[in-house]
Protein backbone atom coordinates (compact mmCIF):
# COMPACT_ATOMS: atom_id res chain seq x y z
CA UNK A 1 0.00 0.00 0.00
CA UNK A 2 1.75 3.14 -1.26
CA UNK A 3 -0.13 5.53 1.01
CA UNK A 4 0.95 3.86 4.27
CA UNK A 5 4.19 4.52 6.09
CA UNK A 6 5.61 2.56 9.00
CA UNK A 7 8.09 3.78 11.62
CA UNK A 8 9.75 1.37 14.00
CA UNK A 9 11.27 3.47 16.76
CA UNK A 10 13.72 1.80 19.15
CA UNK A 11 14.11 3.86 22.33
CA UNK A 12 17.39 2.98 24.03
CA UNK A 13 18.87 1.91 20.72
CA UNK A 14 22.50 2.30 21.79
CA UNK A 15 22.03 -0.04 24.76
CA UNK A 16 22.61 -3.74 25.23
CA UNK A 17 19.19 -5.28 24.55
CA UNK A 18 18.79 -3.34 21.32
CA UNK A 19 22.07 -4.44 19.78
CA UNK A 20 21.84 -8.04 20.96
CA UNK A 21 18.17 -8.77 20.33
CA UNK A 22 16.08 -6.04 18.73
CA UNK A 23 18.28 -5.07 15.79
CA UNK A 24 19.47 -8.58 14.85
CA UNK A 25 15.80 -9.64 14.78
CA UNK A 26 14.83 -6.65 12.65
CA UNK A 27 17.69 -7.54 10.32
CA UNK A 28 16.48 -11.16 10.03
CA UNK A 29 12.96 -9.97 9.25
CA UNK A 30 14.44 -7.66 6.65
CA UNK A 31 16.35 -10.58 5.11
CA UNK A 32 13.16 -12.63 5.07
CA UNK A 33 11.35 -9.74 3.31
CA UNK A 34 8.95 -9.67 6.22
CA UNK A 35 9.08 -5.94 6.99
CA UNK A 36 6.76 -3.53 5.19
CA UNK A 37 8.67 -2.03 2.27
CA UNK A 38 8.22 1.55 3.47
CA UNK A 39 9.20 0.85 7.07
CA UNK A 40 11.92 3.03 8.55
CA UNK A 41 13.82 1.98 11.65
CA UNK A 42 14.74 4.83 13.92
CA UNK A 43 17.28 4.29 16.66
CA UNK A 44 16.78 6.78 19.47
CA UNK A 45 19.02 7.36 22.46
CA UNK A 46 20.22 9.91 24.95
CA UNK A 47 23.59 11.48 24.11
CA UNK A 48 24.34 11.82 27.84
CA UNK A 49 24.70 8.05 28.18
CA UNK A 50 26.26 7.31 24.80
CA UNK A 51 28.68 10.08 24.00
CA UNK A 52 30.36 7.94 21.34
CA UNK A 53 27.26 7.72 19.14
CA UNK A 54 26.46 10.99 17.42
CA UNK A 55 25.23 9.90 13.99
CA UNK A 56 23.65 7.02 12.17
CA UNK A 57 27.04 5.93 10.84
CA UNK A 58 28.46 5.87 14.38
CA UNK A 59 25.44 3.89 15.42
CA UNK A 60 26.07 1.38 12.67
CA UNK A 61 29.81 1.11 13.19
CA UNK A 62 29.97 1.18 16.96
CA UNK A 63 26.86 -0.73 17.90
CA UNK A 64 25.23 -2.69 15.11
CA UNK A 65 27.78 -3.87 12.60
CA UNK A 66 29.37 -6.56 14.75
CA UNK A 67 26.02 -8.05 15.79
CA UNK A 68 24.32 -7.90 12.42
CA UNK A 69 27.22 -9.24 10.42
CA UNK A 70 27.28 -12.26 12.72
CA UNK A 71 23.85 -13.21 11.36
CA UNK A 72 23.71 -15.77 8.59
CA UNK A 73 22.34 -15.63 5.09
CA UNK A 74 23.00 -12.07 3.92
CA UNK A 75 24.75 -10.52 0.95
CA UNK A 76 26.11 -6.97 0.70
CA UNK A 77 22.96 -5.68 -0.93
CA UNK A 78 20.94 -6.74 2.11
CA UNK A 79 23.17 -4.75 4.40
CA UNK A 80 22.92 -1.74 2.12
CA UNK A 81 19.15 -1.92 1.90
CA UNK A 82 18.90 -2.36 5.67
CA UNK A 83 21.04 0.74 6.16
CA UNK A 84 18.61 2.61 3.89
CA UNK A 85 15.91 1.99 6.45
CA UNK A 86 18.08 3.07 9.36
CA UNK A 87 18.13 6.47 11.10
CA UNK A 88 19.42 7.73 14.41
CA UNK A 89 17.95 10.53 16.53
CA UNK A 90 19.00 12.00 19.87
CA UNK A 91 16.31 12.35 22.48
CA UNK A 92 16.49 13.28 26.14
CA UNK A 93 13.53 12.14 28.16
CA UNK A 94 13.97 15.02 30.59
CA UNK A 95 13.76 17.48 27.72
CA UNK A 96 10.37 16.91 26.15
CA UNK A 97 11.04 19.29 23.25
CA UNK A 98 13.53 16.72 21.94
CA UNK A 99 10.52 14.39 21.61
CA UNK A 100 8.77 16.98 19.47
CA UNK A 101 11.86 17.03 17.27
CA UNK A 102 11.60 13.24 16.99
CA UNK A 103 7.99 13.62 15.90
CA UNK A 104 9.00 16.12 13.19
CA UNK A 105 11.66 13.73 11.97
CA UNK A 106 9.19 10.85 11.79
CA UNK A 107 6.81 13.02 9.78
CA UNK A 108 9.58 13.99 7.37
CA UNK A 109 10.48 10.35 6.87
CA UNK A 110 6.84 9.56 6.05
CA UNK A 111 7.18 11.84 3.02
CA UNK A 112 3.58 12.97 3.07
CA UNK A 113 1.97 9.54 2.96
CA UNK A 114 -1.65 9.63 4.09
CA UNK A 115 -1.35 7.04 6.82
CA UNK A 116 1.44 6.62 9.34
CA UNK A 117 1.76 3.69 11.75
CA UNK A 118 4.27 3.81 14.58
CA UNK A 119 5.81 1.15 16.79
CA UNK A 120 7.72 2.37 19.83
CA UNK A 121 9.95 -0.35 21.20
CA UNK A 122 11.15 0.58 24.68
CA UNK A 123 14.56 -1.03 25.11
CA UNK A 124 14.85 1.06 28.28
CA UNK A 125 15.17 0.31 31.98
CA UNK A 126 11.62 0.01 33.38
CA UNK A 127 11.92 3.05 35.65
CA UNK A 128 11.86 5.14 32.47
CA UNK A 129 8.77 3.50 30.95
CA UNK A 130 6.18 5.86 32.42
CA UNK A 131 8.07 9.02 31.53
CA UNK A 132 8.82 7.79 28.02
CA UNK A 133 5.20 6.82 27.40
CA UNK A 134 3.89 10.14 28.68
CA UNK A 135 6.08 12.14 26.29
CA UNK A 136 5.49 9.79 23.39
CA UNK A 137 1.74 10.01 23.85
CA UNK A 138 1.80 13.79 24.06
CA UNK A 139 4.36 14.62 21.42
CA UNK A 140 5.03 11.68 19.13
CA UNK A 141 1.69 10.04 18.53
CA UNK A 142 0.69 9.40 14.95
CA UNK A 143 -2.66 10.95 14.24
CA UNK A 144 -3.20 9.16 10.96
CA UNK A 145 -2.57 5.54 11.92
CA UNK A 146 -2.09 3.21 14.86
CA UNK A 147 0.54 3.49 17.59
CA UNK A 148 1.90 0.47 19.49
CA UNK A 149 4.28 0.39 22.45
CA UNK A 150 6.41 -2.67 23.23
CA UNK A 151 7.71 -3.17 26.77
CA UNK A 152 9.66 -6.00 28.32
CA UNK A 153 10.14 -7.28 31.87
CA UNK A 154 11.05 -6.69 34.62
CA UNK A 155 7.59 -5.34 35.35
CA UNK A 156 8.31 -4.42 38.93
CA UNK A 157 9.66 -6.56 41.74
CA UNK A 158 6.28 -7.60 43.07
CA UNK A 159 2.59 -7.38 42.34
CA UNK A 160 2.20 -3.91 43.83
CA UNK A 161 5.02 -2.45 41.74
CA UNK A 162 3.71 -4.17 38.61
CA UNK A 163 0.24 -2.73 39.26
CA UNK A 164 1.68 0.76 39.75
CA UNK A 165 3.53 0.43 36.45
CA UNK A 166 0.40 -0.84 34.68
CA UNK A 167 -1.56 2.09 36.09
CA UNK A 168 0.93 4.64 34.89
CA UNK A 169 0.92 3.10 31.40
CA UNK A 170 -2.88 3.02 31.44
CA UNK A 171 -2.99 6.78 31.96
CA UNK A 172 -1.64 7.25 28.46
CA UNK A 173 -2.34 4.03 26.57
CA UNK A 174 -5.14 1.64 25.79
CA UNK A 175 -4.45 -1.98 26.78
CA UNK A 176 -4.54 -2.90 23.09
CA UNK A 177 -1.73 -0.42 22.37
CA UNK A 178 0.54 -2.12 24.93
CA UNK A 179 2.54 -5.18 23.88
CA UNK A 180 4.14 -6.76 26.98
CA UNK A 181 6.81 -9.02 25.67
CA UNK A 182 7.78 -12.39 27.12
CA UNK A 183 10.07 -13.92 24.54
CA UNK A 184 9.44 -17.46 25.80
CA UNK A 185 5.95 -17.24 24.32
CA UNK A 186 7.47 -17.13 20.85
CA UNK A 187 9.78 -20.11 21.15
CA UNK A 188 8.82 -22.70 18.55
CA UNK A 189 7.85 -25.45 20.97
CA UNK A 190 6.08 -23.11 23.35
CA UNK A 191 3.97 -21.94 20.41
CA UNK A 192 3.38 -25.60 19.67
CA UNK A 193 1.95 -26.47 23.09
CA UNK A 194 -1.67 -25.69 22.24
CA UNK A 195 -1.34 -27.56 18.95
CA UNK A 196 0.19 -30.57 20.66
CA UNK A 197 -2.62 -30.73 23.19
CA UNK A 198 -5.69 -29.66 21.28
CA UNK A 199 -5.01 -30.59 17.65
CA UNK A 200 -4.03 -34.11 18.74
CA UNK A 201 -7.19 -34.71 20.67
CA UNK A 202 -6.38 -38.16 21.99
CA UNK A 203 -3.01 -36.93 23.28
CA UNK A 204 -4.73 -34.00 24.94
CA UNK A 205 -6.65 -36.42 27.14
CA UNK A 206 -3.41 -37.58 28.72
CA UNK A 207 -2.93 -34.13 30.23
CA UNK A 208 -4.97 -35.00 33.28
CA UNK A 209 -4.44 -36.11 36.87
CA UNK A 210 -5.86 -39.51 35.93
CA UNK A 211 -2.66 -40.14 34.01
CA UNK A 212 -0.03 -37.63 35.10
CA UNK A 213 2.10 -38.16 38.20
CA UNK A 214 4.04 -34.89 38.00
CA UNK A 215 5.11 -32.17 35.59
CA UNK A 216 8.58 -30.67 35.56
CA UNK A 217 9.50 -27.45 33.87
CA UNK A 218 13.23 -26.91 33.94
CA UNK A 219 15.40 -24.06 32.75
CA UNK A 220 19.16 -24.51 32.97
CA UNK A 221 21.89 -22.18 31.86
CA UNK A 222 25.53 -23.13 31.93
CA UNK A 223 26.74 -19.53 32.21
CA UNK A 224 26.57 -17.38 35.30
CA UNK A 225 25.43 -13.76 35.52
CA UNK A 226 28.39 -12.47 33.50
CA UNK A 227 28.29 -8.70 33.16
CA UNK A 228 24.66 -8.49 34.26
CA UNK A 229 25.24 -8.92 37.98
CA UNK A 230 24.14 -5.36 38.74
CA UNK A 231 20.67 -6.02 37.32
CA UNK A 232 20.43 -9.66 38.34
CA UNK A 233 21.25 -9.22 42.01
CA UNK A 234 18.26 -6.95 42.46
CA UNK A 235 15.89 -9.53 40.98
CA UNK A 236 17.18 -13.10 41.37
CA UNK A 237 16.25 -16.19 39.39
CA UNK A 238 12.67 -16.41 40.67
CA UNK A 239 11.78 -13.03 39.19
CA UNK A 240 14.13 -13.26 36.22
CA UNK A 241 12.92 -16.62 34.88
CA UNK A 242 10.21 -18.32 36.92
CA UNK A 243 7.55 -15.68 37.50
CA UNK A 244 7.41 -14.85 33.80
CA UNK A 245 8.98 -17.32 31.33
CA UNK A 246 8.30 -20.57 33.20
CA UNK A 247 4.88 -19.44 34.41
CA UNK A 248 3.89 -18.85 30.79
CA UNK A 249 5.02 -22.35 29.88
CA UNK A 250 3.16 -23.84 32.84
CA UNK A 251 0.00 -21.97 31.89
CA UNK A 252 0.07 -23.38 28.36
CA UNK A 253 0.65 -26.91 29.65
CA UNK A 254 -2.17 -26.68 32.18
CA UNK A 255 -4.92 -24.49 30.66
CA UNK A 256 -8.20 -25.76 29.26
CA UNK A 257 -9.00 -25.46 25.54
CA UNK A 258 -9.89 -21.85 24.67
CA UNK A 259 -13.27 -21.05 23.13
CA UNK A 260 -11.51 -20.06 19.87
CA UNK A 261 -7.91 -19.46 18.87
CA UNK A 262 -8.40 -15.67 18.97
CA UNK A 263 -5.95 -13.78 21.18
CA UNK A 264 -8.51 -12.66 23.76
CA UNK A 265 -10.02 -16.13 24.13
CA UNK A 266 -6.61 -17.72 24.60
CA UNK A 267 -5.59 -15.10 27.15
CA UNK A 268 -8.92 -15.42 29.01
CA UNK A 269 -8.29 -19.14 29.38
CA UNK A 270 -4.74 -18.54 30.58
CA UNK A 271 -5.97 -16.16 33.24
CA UNK A 272 -8.55 -18.73 34.32
CA UNK A 273 -5.93 -21.37 35.05
CA UNK A 274 -3.59 -18.85 36.65
CA UNK A 275 -6.36 -18.00 39.12
CA UNK A 276 -6.47 -21.67 40.14
CA UNK A 277 -2.79 -21.84 41.09
CA UNK A 278 -2.04 -21.66 44.78
CA UNK A 279 0.64 -19.25 45.99
CA UNK A 280 3.85 -21.20 46.47
CA UNK A 281 4.52 -22.42 50.00
CA UNK A 282 8.02 -21.45 51.20
CA UNK A 283 8.61 -25.04 52.36
CA UNK A 284 8.07 -26.12 48.74
CA UNK A 285 10.99 -24.04 47.58
CA UNK A 286 14.75 -24.49 47.68
CA UNK A 287 17.06 -21.68 46.62
CA UNK A 288 20.72 -21.84 45.71
CA UNK A 289 23.65 -19.67 44.70
CA UNK A 290 26.63 -20.87 42.71
CA UNK A 291 30.10 -20.71 44.19
CA UNK A 292 31.94 -17.76 42.77
CA UNK A 293 28.91 -15.49 42.58
CA UNK A 294 30.23 -13.48 45.53
CA UNK A 295 33.54 -12.97 43.74
CA UNK A 296 31.95 -11.02 40.88
CA UNK A 297 33.29 -7.44 41.21
CA UNK A 298 29.80 -5.97 40.82
CA UNK A 299 28.48 -8.18 43.62
CA UNK A 300 31.36 -7.19 45.86
CA UNK A 301 30.39 -3.56 45.37
CA UNK A 302 26.77 -4.36 46.20
CA UNK A 303 27.82 -6.34 49.30
CA UNK A 304 29.96 -3.50 50.52
CA UNK A 305 27.13 -1.03 50.10
CA UNK A 306 24.48 -3.13 51.80
CA UNK A 307 26.81 -4.46 54.51
CA UNK A 308 26.06 -8.18 54.03
CA UNK A 309 26.78 -10.90 51.47
CA UNK A 310 24.16 -11.08 48.74
CA UNK A 311 21.44 -13.68 49.31
CA UNK A 312 20.33 -13.47 45.71
CA UNK A 313 19.32 -16.90 44.38
CA UNK A 314 20.85 -17.95 41.07
CA UNK A 315 18.96 -21.24 41.37
CA UNK A 316 15.52 -22.21 42.63
CA UNK A 317 13.13 -25.13 42.68
CA UNK A 318 9.50 -24.49 43.56
CA UNK A 319 6.48 -26.77 43.59
CA UNK A 320 3.13 -25.43 42.42
CA UNK A 321 -0.35 -26.90 42.78
CA UNK A 322 -3.46 -26.18 40.79
CA UNK A 323 -6.83 -26.29 42.46
CA UNK A 324 -8.99 -27.66 39.69
CA UNK A 325 -10.34 -31.03 38.65
CA UNK A 326 -7.91 -31.66 35.85
CA UNK A 327 -4.77 -31.22 37.92
CA UNK A 328 -5.90 -32.14 41.39
CA UNK A 329 -2.92 -33.42 43.39
CA UNK A 330 -0.37 -33.16 40.55
CA UNK A 331 2.80 -31.30 41.56
CA UNK A 332 4.22 -28.91 38.95
CA UNK A 333 7.90 -28.71 39.73
CA UNK A 334 9.62 -25.62 38.41
CA UNK A 335 13.37 -25.39 38.37
CA UNK A 336 15.57 -22.61 37.09
CA UNK A 337 19.27 -22.05 37.50
CA UNK A 338 22.33 -20.35 36.18
CA UNK A 339 25.82 -21.84 36.35
CA UNK A 340 24.51 -25.41 35.96
CA UNK A 341 25.82 -28.39 34.02
CA UNK A 342 23.97 -27.79 30.72
CA UNK A 343 22.04 -25.23 28.73
CA UNK A 344 18.51 -26.57 28.34
CA UNK A 345 14.83 -25.76 28.77
CA UNK A 346 12.61 -28.78 29.01
CA UNK A 347 9.10 -29.81 30.02
CA UNK A 348 8.68 -33.35 31.30
CA UNK A 349 5.28 -34.85 31.89
CA UNK A 350 5.77 -37.98 33.90
CA UNK A 351 2.90 -40.47 33.81
CA UNK A 352 1.67 -42.67 36.62
CA UNK A 353 3.34 -45.93 37.37
CA UNK A 354 1.52 -49.15 36.54
CA UNK A 355 0.81 -51.21 39.67
CA UNK A 356 3.18 -54.16 40.29
CA UNK A 357 0.24 -56.45 39.63
CA UNK A 358 -0.12 -55.21 36.04
CA UNK A 359 0.56 -57.47 33.05
CA UNK A 360 4.17 -56.35 32.63
CA UNK A 361 5.04 -55.98 36.29
CA UNK A 362 6.98 -53.00 37.60
CA UNK A 363 8.29 -50.80 34.86
CA UNK A 364 9.70 -47.31 34.55
CA UNK A 365 7.15 -44.53 34.16
CA UNK A 366 6.43 -43.20 30.71
CA UNK A 367 7.18 -39.59 29.96
CA UNK A 368 6.22 -37.04 27.37
CA UNK A 369 9.13 -34.67 26.94
CA UNK A 370 9.07 -31.32 25.19
CA UNK A 371 12.55 -29.95 24.69
CA UNK A 372 12.14 -26.23 24.10
CA UNK A 373 15.87 -25.67 23.62
CA UNK A 374 18.39 -26.47 22.33
CA UNK A 375 17.41 -28.75 19.39
CA UNK A 376 13.66 -28.54 19.64
CA UNK A 377 12.10 -31.97 20.01
CA UNK A 378 9.09 -33.78 21.38
CA UNK A 379 9.55 -37.35 22.49
CA UNK A 380 7.61 -39.95 24.33
CA UNK A 381 9.44 -42.41 26.50
CA UNK A 382 7.45 -45.58 26.34
CA UNK A 383 7.72 -49.31 26.72
CA UNK A 384 8.38 -51.65 23.81
CA UNK A 385 9.19 -55.30 23.42
CA UNK A 386 12.85 -55.97 22.79
CA UNK A 387 13.29 -57.19 19.22
CA UNK A 388 14.62 -60.74 18.73
CA UNK A 389 13.56 -64.34 18.34
CA UNK A 390 13.70 -65.73 21.77
CA UNK A 391 12.26 -63.00 23.83
CA UNK A 392 8.82 -62.99 25.33
CA UNK A 393 6.30 -60.21 25.18
CA UNK A 394 7.16 -59.32 28.76
CA UNK A 395 10.76 -58.48 27.88
CA UNK A 396 10.05 -54.81 27.61
CA UNK A 397 12.33 -51.84 27.69
CA UNK A 398 11.85 -48.15 27.83
CA UNK A 399 12.43 -46.62 24.43
CA UNK A 400 11.66 -43.40 22.62
CA UNK A 401 9.08 -42.22 20.09
CA UNK A 402 10.72 -39.16 18.72
CA UNK A 403 9.86 -35.98 16.80
CA UNK A 404 13.03 -34.07 16.09
CA UNK A 405 11.92 -30.80 14.53
CA UNK A 406 15.11 -30.14 12.60
CA UNK A 407 15.07 -33.58 11.00
CA UNK A 408 11.36 -33.79 10.40
CA UNK A 409 10.87 -30.34 8.91
CA UNK A 410 14.35 -29.99 7.44
CA UNK A 411 14.72 -26.66 9.14
CA UNK A 412 17.66 -24.52 8.24
CA UNK A 413 17.03 -22.28 11.20
CA UNK A 414 14.15 -21.70 13.57
CA UNK A 415 13.38 -18.00 13.88
CA UNK A 416 14.51 -16.28 17.06
CA UNK A 417 11.68 -15.61 19.48
CA UNK A 418 12.28 -11.86 19.16
CA UNK A 419 11.83 -12.03 15.40
CA UNK A 420 8.40 -13.57 15.69
CA UNK A 421 7.32 -11.10 18.35
CA UNK A 422 8.49 -8.03 16.45
CA UNK A 423 6.68 -9.32 13.39
CA UNK A 424 3.57 -9.88 15.54
CA UNK A 425 3.67 -6.30 16.81
CA UNK A 426 3.77 -4.92 13.28
CA UNK A 427 0.87 -7.21 12.34
CA UNK A 428 -1.07 -6.22 15.47
CA UNK A 429 -1.14 -9.83 16.60
CA UNK A 430 -1.37 -9.94 20.39
CA UNK A 431 -1.71 -13.67 21.20
CA UNK A 432 1.84 -13.98 22.37
CA UNK A 433 1.98 -10.94 24.57
CA UNK A 434 1.09 -10.83 28.23
CA UNK A 435 -2.18 -9.18 29.23
CA UNK A 436 -2.30 -7.09 32.38
CA UNK A 437 -4.43 -9.59 34.31
CA UNK A 438 -2.07 -12.47 33.48
CA UNK A 439 0.77 -10.48 34.94
CA UNK A 440 -1.20 -9.69 38.11
CA UNK A 441 -2.04 -13.34 38.61
CA UNK A 442 1.54 -14.47 38.10
CA UNK A 443 2.65 -12.05 40.81
CA UNK A 444 -0.08 -13.26 43.16
CA UNK A 445 1.45 -16.74 42.98
CA UNK A 446 5.01 -15.61 43.70
CA UNK A 447 4.62 -12.58 46.00
CA UNK A 448 4.10 -14.40 49.33
CA UNK A 449 7.05 -16.71 48.64
CA UNK A 450 9.36 -13.81 47.84
CA UNK A 451 8.28 -11.88 50.91
CA UNK A 452 8.94 -14.87 53.15
CA UNK A 453 12.32 -15.64 51.60
CA UNK A 454 13.59 -12.07 51.51
CA UNK A 455 11.94 -10.25 54.40
CA UNK A 456 10.82 -12.81 56.98
CA UNK A 457 13.27 -15.70 56.79
CA UNK A 458 16.11 -13.83 55.08
CA UNK A 459 16.87 -17.30 53.79
CA UNK A 460 20.47 -18.07 52.86
CA UNK A 461 20.71 -19.84 49.50
CA UNK A 462 22.32 -23.30 49.41
CA UNK A 463 25.74 -23.19 47.78
CA UNK A 464 26.41 -25.26 44.67
CA UNK A 465 29.42 -25.80 42.48
CA UNK A 466 29.49 -23.93 39.19
CA UNK A 467 28.69 -26.43 36.45
CA UNK A 468 26.91 -28.90 38.73
CA UNK A 469 23.26 -30.05 38.91
CA UNK A 470 22.53 -27.52 41.64
CA UNK A 471 22.14 -28.08 45.38
CA UNK A 472 21.41 -31.56 46.72
CA UNK A 473 18.50 -30.25 48.76
CA UNK A 474 16.73 -29.36 45.51
CA UNK A 475 16.96 -32.94 44.25
CA UNK A 476 15.64 -34.12 47.60
CA UNK A 477 12.60 -31.87 47.28
CA UNK A 478 11.98 -33.11 43.75
CA UNK A 479 12.29 -36.74 44.85
CA UNK A 480 9.75 -36.10 47.59
CA UNK A 481 7.33 -35.05 44.86
CA UNK A 482 7.54 -38.56 43.42
CA UNK A 483 9.69 -37.74 40.42
CA UNK A 484 11.84 -40.64 39.23
CA UNK A 485 14.98 -40.26 37.22
CA UNK A 486 15.64 -42.83 34.51
CA UNK A 487 18.67 -43.21 32.37
CA UNK A 488 17.06 -43.34 28.88
CA UNK A 489 17.02 -39.83 27.40
C1 LIG B 1 16.04 -13.41 30.01
C2 LIG B 1 16.71 -13.38 31.35
O1 LIG B 1 14.72 -12.97 30.14
O2 LIG B 1 16.05 -14.73 29.52
C3 LIG B 1 18.13 -13.91 31.24
O3 LIG B 1 16.73 -12.06 31.85
C4 LIG B 1 18.15 -15.26 30.58
O4 LIG B 1 18.71 -13.98 32.52
C5 LIG B 1 17.34 -15.25 29.29
O5 LIG B 1 19.49 -15.57 30.30
C6 LIG B 1 17.18 -16.64 28.74
O6 LIG B 1 16.59 -16.60 27.48
P1 LIG B 1 16.94 -17.71 26.39
O7 LIG B 1 16.04 -17.36 25.26
O8 LIG B 1 18.38 -17.57 26.10
O9 LIG B 1 16.61 -19.00 27.04
Automatic annotation (TrEMBL):
Keywords: Carbohydrate metabolism, Glucose metabolism, NADP, Oxidoreductase
Record bears the keyword Oxidoreductase: yes
Domain of life of the native organism: Eukaryota
Stretches assigned to the Glucose-6-phosphate dehydrogenase NAD-binding domain: 9-192
Functional pathway: Carbohydrate degradation; pentose phosphate pathway; D-ribulose 5-phosphate from D-glucose 6-phosphate (oxidative stage): step 1/3
Gene Ontology terms for molecular function: glucose-6-phosphate dehydrogenase activity; NADP binding
GO BP field: glucose metabolic process; pentose-phosphate shunt, oxidative branch
EC number: 1.1.1.49
Record domain Glucose-6-phosphate dehydrogenase C-terminal: where: 194-482
UniProt catalytic activity: D-glucose 6-phosphate + NADP(+) = 6-phospho-D-glucono-1,5-lactone + NADPH + H(+)
Biological function: Catalyzes the rate-limiting step of the oxidative pentose-phosphate pathway, which represents a route for the dissimilation of carbohydrates besides glycolysis.
The family this protein is said to belong to: Belongs to the glucose-6-phosphate dehydrogenase family.
Protein name (record): Glucose-6-phosphate 1-dehydrogenase
Gene name per UniProt: gsdA
Amino acid sequence: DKETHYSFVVMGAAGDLAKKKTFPSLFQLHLGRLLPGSMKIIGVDDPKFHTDVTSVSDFWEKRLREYLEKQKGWVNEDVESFKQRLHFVHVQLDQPETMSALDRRLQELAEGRAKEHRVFYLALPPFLFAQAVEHLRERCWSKTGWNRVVVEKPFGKNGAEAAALSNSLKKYLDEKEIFRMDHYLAKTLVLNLLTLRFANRELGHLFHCHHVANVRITFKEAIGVQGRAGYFDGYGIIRDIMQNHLMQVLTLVAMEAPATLEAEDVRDEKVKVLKQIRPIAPRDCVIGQYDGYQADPDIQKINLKQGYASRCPTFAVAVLYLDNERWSGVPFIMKAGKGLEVHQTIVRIQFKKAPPSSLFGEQPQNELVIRIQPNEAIYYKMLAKMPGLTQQARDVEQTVLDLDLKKRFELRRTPEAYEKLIHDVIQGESHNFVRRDELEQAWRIFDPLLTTLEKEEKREPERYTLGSRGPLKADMLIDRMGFRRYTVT
